[in-house]
Amino acid sequence: MRRLLLHVQTLLGIGHLRRAAAVARAAADAGFEVTVASGGMPVPDLDIGGARLFQLPAVRTLDSDFRVLVDAEGRPIDDGWRRLRRDTTLELFGKIRPDVLVTELFPFGRRQLRFELLPLLETARGVAHPPVIVSSMRDILVTKPRADRNREIVDTLHAYYDRVLVHGDRRVITLASTFPDHHRIAPMVEYTGYVMTPWHAGNGEGRGEIVVSAGGGAVGGAIMTRVMQLRSALPSGGRPWRFVTGPHMPEEFASRLRPAPGVTVERSRADLPALVANADLSISQAGYNTLVEVLAAGTPAVVIPFEGGVETEQRLRADLLAERGALEVVAHDVLAAGTLGAAMERALARGRRHPGGVHLDGAVRTAGILHRLADAR
After folding, report:
1. Among the residues of 165-324, which ranges form H helices?
2. Is the omega angle on the peptide bond into residue 305 within 30 degrees of 0, that is, cis?
3. Quick count: other Cβ atoms within 10 Å of Cβ 55?
4. Residue 96 in contact with residue 14, Cβ under 8 Å?
5. Residue 212: which of 299, 313, 334 has the closest Cα?
6. What does R_g of the chain's alpha carbons equal in angstroms?
7. What is the Cα 129 distance to its own chain's centre?
8. Can you state the angle between helices 313-323 and 288-297, rounded to 10 degrees?
9. For strand 132-138 and strand 100-104, is the pairing parallel, antiparallel, or unpaired?
10. 212 pairs with which residues across the strands?
């Protein structure tokens, strides 16, 4: 059985880990022995199917600028902590001896983890039977303004990697739109389609509701509390509301979301995709996983993209899908009863629809590509 090691690091939200988990499940179903090395904060109810989860010493960021990294106890990481992470990762690699190594986002992002990932790549390239090395990334890159950083990404890819897998559909957006040096790595790039977390309608819970969610919740507090404040002035049509905060929402925001008649508030739901699929309307941020689930279900949707710090990908993705008639967009800086209410009415009037021609089978396609690369090696 071929062995796959998938390294993933979340720093703020949980989207990268959920996407990696979907790929891990598909790869395990396809016959790989899969280990997911996760370096972010643990996420409850994470479904990785037949894969194994290895929790590295956890690190997270304090804010959306990603400048300060802290450990699980909130202490800034130091060189001793970095050595521990590096050594733990290299020991894991030595035990698994993978046939395929996947680094999620690196080297396009997670530059703060070079202390760990560059030694991992050097070790992988130096063993007697090197694994296939793959970089896995979402559809949209947070564009790097510095040319030297982009050259560094290209040089790292050429030095260590065999393939770049973009978890998107080139008919929606290509890497060229957000990575200026795309032409230097074009032969390495394959598009997998969007990676979707499988869901089942279950008992139909959420049917007839307006579901308001914020993914992991780390940066969704201000949006969710604002929607709660506006709720009585919004055109709900008598539908019940369900707010799902996400496990990482700071308590200062989560505590402001209180249940009331016709309003349910929950911290976390493992079956959130099913709730969104069953709902009459979804109101959310515009993260990768949430929007893929909305697309798959065809649920009428209004999105309020997160645009804090250096993050631009949510707004770009939301606008592209709005152009395809898949959803309505309300910018955070104009979020009010009038703007949100009008967007809700437009989405509900349009009803359920599935935008044609968008590949949503990215997890299965990724597993197939990894098998093909391993066979060739």
Report:
1. 221-230, 251-254, 272-278, 288-297, 313-323
2. no
3. 14
4. no
5. 299
6. 21
7. 32
8. 20
9. parallel
10. 243, 283
- The DSSP symbol for 347 reads H
- Contact of 100 with 33, CB cutoff 8 Å: no
pLDDT by 10s per residue, the chain, length 377: 999 999 999 998 888 999 999 999 999 999 999 999 999 999 888 899 999 999 999 999 887 667 889 999 999 999 999 999 999 999 999 999 999 999 999 999 999 999 999 999 999 999 999 999 999 999 999 876 789 999 999 999 999 999 999 999 999 999 999 999 999 999 999 999 999 877 776 678 889 999 999 887 777 888 999 999 999 999 999 999 999 998 878 888 888 999 999 999 999 888 888 999 999 999 999 989 989 988 888 999 999 998 866 667 899 999 999 998 899 999 999 999 999 999 999 999 999 987 667 899 999 999 999 999 999 98
334 sits in the region (left: phi over 0; alpha: psi -120 to 50; else beta) called alpha
Phi first, then psi: what are they for 264, rounded to 5°? Answer: -105, 135
Asked if 246 and 266 count as a contact pair (C-beta separation under 8 A), the reply is no
In whole angstroms, give the CA distance from residue 348 to residue 364. Answer: 32
Tell me if 192 sits within 8 A of 164, measured CB to CB. no
8 Å CB contact between 317 and 142: no
Q: How many Å separate Cα 155 from the centre of its chain?
A: 25
| Distance, CA of 266 to chain centre | 21
Q: Helix, strand, or coil here: 311?
A: coil
What length does the chain have? 377
Tokens encoding 218: 């780390």
Q: Can you tell me which residue has the tokens 């800086």? A: 333
Residue 249 identity (one-letter amino acid)? M
Q: What is the DSSP string of 134-158?
A: EEEEES-------HHHHHHHHHHHH
Single-letter amino acid, residue 343 = A
Reading the block at residue 364, the tokens are 């299965």
CA distances in angstroms from 353 to 193, 208, 328, 356, listed in the order given: 19, 16, 13, 9
> Burial level of 288, CB count in 10 A (0-12/13-18/19+)?
buried
3-state secondary structure of 34: strand
pLDDT tens digit sequence for 77-127: 999 999 999 999 999 999 999 999 999 999 999 999 999 999 999 999 999
